[in-house]
Specification:
With 162 residues, the chain is mostly helical. The chain folds into 2 domains: 120 residues, Up-down Bundle (de novo design (two linked rop proteins)); 37 residues. Helices cover 77% and strands 0% of the residues. It is built from 5 helices and no strands. The longest helix is centred in the middle third of the chain and has 28 residues. It starts with 12 loop residues before the first helix and ends in an 8-residue tail after the last helix. The mean pLDDT is 86.
């Protein structure tokens, strides 16, 4: 997943999937699992942590910070799976529904892993660093143009236009 392709975290497919998982888990914890308050509270915090850490890392502006938050997000996806595995055992009537949620969580973990691997191999240091590089490139181009203008003024006979 290319960071440059997306301007807002809300456009990221993995963030959208994490929000979808949070919505599905919200329905589960407000419905058939409502009686298991402590489990539901922990599950809710973990699932919200997935999308929130994707968003926060994306907004930070550097690749290293984004990676740190993606690792946290992936850890939260693992925590969600662990909670769901336990609930799958405790609530056998919900096994099929919970299994679907586990699959969604695994998919999010795979997406995060792929994105992290691509970021680790990227030369881009993040949006914040990209702006620094663009400013530096702009200054280099400006200096080159000034040098050529100075050269043309000092040696006009050598730089005739065709």
């Amino acid at each position: 997943m290319s960071l440059m392709k997306y301007k807002r975290f809300e456009d990221l497919p993995v963030w959208k999937d994490a929000i979808g998982l949070a919505e599905a888990i919200d329905g589960l914890i407000k419905g058939p699992l409502a009686k298991r308050k402590n489990y539901c509270d922990q599950l809710e915090r973990a699932v919200l942590s997935i999308s929130n850490n994707i968003a926060e890392g994306f907004e930070r502006g550097t690749t290293s910070e984004l990676l740190s938050f993606l690792y946290i997000s992936r850890g939260s996806a693992g925590e969600v799976r662990s909670m769901l595995r336990l609930l799958e055992r405790l609530e056998p009537d919900l096994k099929s529904h919970i299994s679907d949620l586990i699959t969604k969580s695994e998919n999010i973990s795979r997406q995060l892993w792929g994105w992290m691997e691509s970021l680790k191999n990227s030369e881009i240091q993040g949006q914040r660093r990209l702006y620094d590089r663009e400013r530096k490139n702009y200054q280099i181009e400006k200096d080159q143009k000034q040098f050529l203008e100075d050269l043309h003024q000092k040696f006009p006979e050598h730089h005739k236009k065709p």
